[in-house]
Each structure stands twice: as structure tokens, then as C-alpha cells.
Design brief:
The chain has helices spanning 14-23, 40-56, 67-73, 85-95, 108-112, 130-143, 161-166, 176-179, 184-206; strands at residues 2-5, 28-31, 60-64, 77-80, 100-104, 121-125, 149-153, 171-174. The protein is an alpha/beta fold and 207 residues long. It has one domain (2-206): TIM Barrel. The chain has an eight-stranded parallel β-barrel with strand order 1-2-3-4-5-6-7-8, surrounded by six helices. Helix 5 links the parallel strand 5 (100-104) and strand 6.
């Protein structure tokens, strides 16, 4: 799974970023509060500008932090940069069981604090050698019986992706490496192709 996180418009607008990554095959877009200037009005405008495009292409659309706007626009879900137990529980209660709720965690301790809540995925920024970092975190989660999907967040090279999947990550969340590529559509396809190869390699290693 590739989750594309929009970036502040420098070369391409948020709508252009969305169009190009969808052209490249991405089926999960997160509108960053930074790319929308952290204002509800701007976030609404950016979301409304791509809702139809996402619907037509069966793309999940997630908004960062604005639970009320997710509810109002009826998009797929919310991603919370505040991973406190209170914030995550409140988002789930307000949006209901059908919504996607993800959050950014910085450490295993952050993840452990959410145990027992209905969380779809935790996105964790990479530290150090990425594959080793996520493998260690996944082991801790498994030993504790925590079943959240673990998403690797960072600007990864395509040669790193197989290792991240082998480490137990369900997918990757990327932004600048794609948005600022010569062709975001081509960069998206390259990432997705590398993820497909990584999944095939992981499957072969299991049998």
C-alpha cells in the first residue's frame, strides 16, 4: 500500500499532485494540514477540489486532523498527528466504525498507549536503518498482541521498500520524494512496482 501525503504547493497544486499520483496508480491520498495552511477553509477547498476525482478512481481520501470536516464532507477518514488516547478515541466515537482512523506515533510507547482502541493504522516516521527499526517495532507489537497496521513514513528509495515489507510494514507513506519528482506519475508507478516486487519476494520467502 502506498499512501501519498500532499505537500505545500511549490511546483504543483494539491489538486495537481492528486491527479498525477492517481494517474500513477496510487489509491490512497492524505491531505496534509501543512499543504492546506492548517486552516479549515483551505482544507475544505483542497478536499472539495479532489473529492470527485478520488470517487471516480476509487481512491481513499483522508484528511489530516480535521475530524469535523471529515464528518461533513463524508470522506473516508482522518489521520491524527496527535496520537493521544483521548484524541484517537474521540475521533472514532465521532466518525463511527466505518471510518478510517490513523495516527502518527513516534515510538513503540506511543503505539502501546493506544492498545485496545479501534485504530486502523499507525504511521511511524523512520529512524536509523529503516528496515531494522520497523522490524524491531513490529516484534514488540506482536509480542504485546497489538494488531494495528504499521505504516512506514518517510522518503524511501525504491530499493528500500522490499525490506520495509519484510520488516512487517503494511505499506509506506511518502510525500516529497514523489511530489517533487520530475514526473510524480512515473515516480508513483516506480514505488508501486517496487512494493509489488517486495510482496512477491516476501511470499516466496514464506513458502
Amino acid at each position: 500500500m502506498l499512501q501519498f501525503i500532499t505537500v505545500s504547493p511549490v511546483r504543483y497544486s494539491v489538486a495537481e499532485q492528486a491527479r498525477m499520483v492517481i494517474e500513477g496508480g496510487c489509491r490512497w491520498i492524505q491531505i496534509s494540514s501543512e499543504s492546506a495552511d492548517s486552516s479549515e477553509t483551505c482544507m475544505r477547498k483542497e478536499a472539495e477540489g479532489i473529492i470527485d476525482l478520488c470517487t471516480e478512481n476509487e481512491v481513499f481520501l483522508v484528511l489530516e486532523n480535521d475530524v469535523a470536516l471529515v464528518e461533513d464532507l463524508k470522506v473516508h477518514g482522518v489521520f491524527l498527528t496527535d496520537c493521544s488516547r483521548e484524541s484517537v478515541a474521540a475521533a472514532r466515537e465521532r466518525l463511527g466504525a466505518h471510518a478510517v482512523v490513523g495516527t502518527r506515533c513516534r515510538s513503540y510507547g506511543d503505539i502501546e498507549a493506544l492498545k485496545g482502541l479501534d485504530v486502523d493504522y499507525v504511521s511511524v516516521p523512520a529512524e536509523g536503518p529503516a528496515a531494522e527499526f520497523y522490524a524491531a517495532m513490529k516484534r514488540q507489537m506482536t509480542e504485546a498482541g497489538i494488531e494495528f497496521h504499521l505504516v512506514a513514513e518517510g522518503e524511501f528509495g525504491t530499493d528500500e521498500l522490499a525490506g520495509l515489507l519484510a520488516a512487517g510494514c503494511a505499506g509506506v507513506a511518502m510525500s516529497t520524494a514523489i511530489a517533487e519528482a520530475g514526473s510524480p506519475a512515473v515516480a508513483t508507478r516506480e514505488v508501486l512496482d517496487a512494493l509489488d516486487r517486495g510482496r512477491e519476494e516476501a511470499y516466496r520467502n514464506r513458502i
